[in-house]
User: Fold these one by one.
Assistant:
Number 1:
Amino acid sequence: MSELRYDGQVVVVTGAGGGLGKAYALFFGSRGASVVVNDLGGSFKGDGASSKAADVVVNEIKAAGGKAVANYDSVTSGDKIIETAIQNYGRIDILLNNAGILRDVSFKNMSDKDWDLIIDVHVKGSYKCARAAWPYFRKQKYGRVINTASAAGLFGSFGQTNYSAAKLAMVGFTETLAKEGAKYNIHANVIAPIAASRMTETVMPPDILENLKPDWVVPLVACLVHKDAEENGAIFEVGGGHIAKLRWERSSGLLLKADDSYTPGAILKKWDQVGKFDKNAQYPNGVADFMGLLEASMKMGPNDK
Ligand code: NAD
């Protein structure tokens, strides 16, 4: 298979001054794309700002013969980041919503500031960038978005209620973008990566980190955002050479007649069925998938009290 290329395309990578974002930026810069290297340059907790992080990456791309421009705005001003792409390159094709911070603290000690900062950077930041890129994507009938979730959002993680909430929000956000964008050839997918970075270096042992290079997340992202890629609205876990898709599973469930006989006792009597993940389990991917069950319930006789 020939090498995937992105010649003539413009890629915006948020949080591209380090970690995963830097790996994405260097890759796309080496495969013909013009890259907007966004990074606020603060600490991993979201304090401070510096132009250095983005500048180093831009210089590296340029030194290797690629095209790149820096942007130092926070993703909460995503319109300015997209404007950098338009002003410098006249278009935007691919948006990698990657910037992120952590404010880990047990829920008992969580402050409004810890909560708001995390929701702002991850949720509002991804929204602002995608919202600003959207009219360009629609007009050119082409766009690719990657949003960044986390296992912490999918499964929960001690000390990360704020981060977990923000990261699962990326799944719902992506699913709806995928549905709204499909007819304009705008594809959105979401990844839950695992990689060695300043975010993980204090919580994982060095030998594990050695096998979790950010570079091992890049190939999946490269596949998903390529112009020939068809994937849309998918959720992936990726890291250390492993890639897997995730999906929702609904148990075959308990179906009761919704009338006066639908009591707590009627539910408890058949509680096992509520959590039965057997061969009749479903894999729903739309809100209307529920309607068939509702119709079946309406046709049932009264529940056995
Ligand atoms: P990282 O700290 O190395 O990189 C994040 C970058 O985002 C930093 O360079 C930082 O300066 C930048 N940034 C932070 N706030 C910003 C803002 N408001 N505006 C612009 N830039 C900002 O961390 P990483 O591990 O490379 O994380 C990248 C993404 O992957 C994050 O969204 C993170 O939550 C997610 N993630 C990472 C892992 C992992 O194992 N590393 C796991 C799950 C999710």
Number 2:
Amino acid sequence: MRGKFITFEGGEGAGKSTQAAMLASRLEALGLGVVVTREPGGSPGAEAIRHVLLSGAAKPLGADVEAMLFAAARDDHVRCTILPALEAGKWVVCDRFADSTRVYQGALGKVDARLIKSLERVSIGDLVPDLTLILDLPVEIGLERSKERRGDATPDRFEAEGADFHQKLRDAFRAIAADEPQRCVIIDAGTGKEEVAKLIWDAVTARLEPDRKAAEQPAAEQSAPAGTIAKKLAPEDPDDLAEELFAPEDSSS
Ligand code: T5A
């Protein structure tokens, strides 16, 4: 039985990584096999492209080229990580996906909609998330959270943009949710982690019935094999998600 594909979207500091980890733990507790992943990144090739994009190295090349690089990363991620996991019956929980390109490069970067569409067709084909959770909160709260988490580190390519940019991001994500209500649910992410997690769980259970799917799943699929990324997470420390999942490989080996 094919797994389900859930994506998290929203602005900076909305709590996507935190909630992706919390949701994965909850799905795993039902006995479902779960893979948590992220974009840009989520596969070795895509992680290499992530560095180019978030360092700002590609910014001088323009928004079209950045959109192509996000699509190249997505192509590798879909082929190497997402599709194999779904075909193995696992649930894939992904921190950002194609809506981020529509919003950051399309709505904000003014990349032509036809190019965005073509890149989507090449990189994801007919893969559409079963559910997209759009974490929505006032811009100033999200930026404050990002700042706190970053500490003394330099803001990345997109965190460094101004408040007006982030407000437009918020509006663009809300517009996608309004256009595609069958796929997207807006989640009020401005409250505490547990309250947000409850809203998310309510949406996931209403739309995807994980309890029923876990009961139907063959026993062989129920315990995810080693390598399921979410297995590495302790439910109480979702903030360590990125560090745990995507630590750079040892270049000496
Ligand atoms: N991008 C990405 C594009 O331009 N195009 C694309 O196609 C794609 C895929 C990715 C960047 O790339 C851009 C968008 C991004 O700018 P990233 O480092 O992966 O960069 O950054 P983000 O996805 O923006 O992730 P962030 O880490 O900034 O935000 P999250 O994941 O939404 O937030 P999270 O969970 O890390 O939480 C941030 C802090 O807030 C706290 C957490 O503990 C953490 O400290 N927090 C809360 N505090 C209070 N209450 C809550 N409810 C909280 N939830 C979390």
